[in-house]
Fold this sequence. Notes:
Elements: H1 8-20, H2 28-32, H3 39-42, E1 79-82, H4 84-87, E2 92-97, H5 107-119, E3 130-134, H6 138-149, E4 153-159, H7 164-170, E5 176-180, H8 187-200, E6 204-206, H9 213-235, E7 240-247, H10 254-263, E8 268-274, H11 279-282, E9 309-313, H12 315-326, H13 328-336, H14 342-347, H15 353-368, E10 375-381, H16 389-399, H17 404-416, E11 423-425, H18 428-436, H19 438-443, H20 450-458, H21 460-469, H22 471-485
Parallel strand pairs: 2-10, 3-4, 3-6, 4-5, 7-8, 7-10, 8-9
Antiparallel strand pairs: 1-2, 9-11
Helix pairs in contact: 1-22, 5-6, 5-9, 9-10, 12-13, 12-15, 12-17, 13-17, 20-21
Amino acid sequence: MIDLQVNRPSLQRSIDHARARNIVIPTFKQMSDPGAIPEKVLAKLPGVGLWDVDPLNLFRVSWHNEPKEHGGLFGDVNYIEFPSELTGVKAKIVALVGKWFPTGCHKVGASFGCLVPRLITGQFDPTFHKAVWPSTGNYCRGGAYNSALLGCESVAILPEGMSRERFEWLESIAGEIIATAGSESNVKEIFDKVWELRNTRDNIIIFNQFEELGNCLWHYHVTGPAMVKAFKSAAGGGGNFAGVCLTSGSAGTLSAGDYVKDHFPKARLAVAEALQCPTLLENGFGAHHIEGIGDKHVPWIHNVKNSDMVIDIDDANTLSLLRLFNEPEGKAYLQGELKLAPEFVDKLSWVGISGIANVLSAVKFAKYYELSGNDVVATVLTDSAVMYGSRLQELTAQRGAYSAGRAMADHERYMLGASTDYMEELTYPARKRIHNLKYFTWIEQQGRTMEELNDQWYDYDNYWGKMHKQVADVDALIESFNEQTGLLK
Length: 489
């Protein structure tokens, strides 16, 4: 359960702080359904840019943002449907688009889900505490951004090997940046730095996305319903919701798959990871270049018992497709040889590296289950190619200029030729094997308890189900907080 005990003196300081800075906090209901947003807020949003450091942008922590850089309001869920000519499978693959969140990534939602329950209960005091955001990239960006909107100081922690664009943007928004050793697969080094800060500073609150149940709560109640809306739109009133395919990362987004399975019991949830670091598939280790997904451990908030399949993706495939989707020669091939619509090809720049891995996992999933054109598979595009311009430059330096021939070969080999190797359909013992891996990170290293670890497995409905239902309590606390600031009157 998420701790919702109230610290009254600290909460009053938070309310005064919000009133002085004109901060109104959206409810989870409003993030899922913008039709519930107060008219007073809607009237002001057209004057605010999508990435502006303005508290009003808390209301743009939503999959429904109008796809424009400035002044947009809300509409249908932002998603892309990938055509069979590109994927090589009959099934409809639909992907929610993270580009149209502030910061260009849906991790502002995950960080909101972690921070706001502490703020509205007074457990986090923005006049005293600094918010610490341990991350493999996008989560600390979202956390630093939300911290700025809420008028509090932030500490961003991410591996030194992440893309240059992430660091350059963080320099303009985060109070402090700490670069840890390694790349996206070096999560333990991030955790070690967190322990160092915890033991040496007394004014910090750690928001560890890998263990914060607020991360799950946000994705379950905001991303999950968005997936269902995308499915209904793509299926046209019919169709079969076959499954959800997502890279593990912090495992927060996997909670959207839990939501889908609760409403479509025949749907399957597949968890993807990098083949170069096969933690879930083989209890393995290594390093890779699918930025931001993290690995070499099983996140505390991964509801493993609800996962049906593991799919490993070769990072070389994702990088080759990044070039296909973004190099001029690649776009020319897609429009010329495949006859894909120019407006769709332009949208492929909305797909970042982890998004490509997600789409590839959906393709492998569709091939494995021999899905038909009546089937829909959902996934997520966490961020866009905006964060990887430097990676494209590096690939050109390493491999030479891109060409039409290379574009055709990349499409044939890495998309149409995607195979069903390095996959495992999880049995009950296989799920438990993965769940048991949590012990080594979370009990031995991070101080969690065996009782809670066992509750996650044996007391399934009481643990995960009760947490999902806490959204009503959280929204009530948010509404009380806003009422006490008086800003919506």
